[in-house]
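Re-running Sarcosine oxidase subunit delta to confirm reproducibility after the cluster update. Everything else is unchanged from the original entry.
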Amino acid sequence: MQRFPCPFCGLRDEREFSYVGDFGKVRPDTKARVSDAEWAAYLYDQKNPKGQSTEIWVHLPCQEYFKMTRDTVSMDVIDAAPLRKPAQ
Ligand SMILES: [Zn+2]
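Result of re-run:
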């Protein structure tokens, strides 16, 4: 069983996490006209690289979203960082 690092809780079982999406994806500007193709690309296209990938994940018990870089071949986690500063 794989263990993922939550930046707020530490190492936890992978079943406690959910993939959210590619890191760095930019939502189309809704003030401008957005075509169906642009929306579809934003919603459904994923990079899905072989090798290093940086993604947004959520740790379900604490509901914190964070950035995780991992190798999709070896399944090694390279880095995990919060998207916000942890509460003091
Ligand atoms: Zn957590």
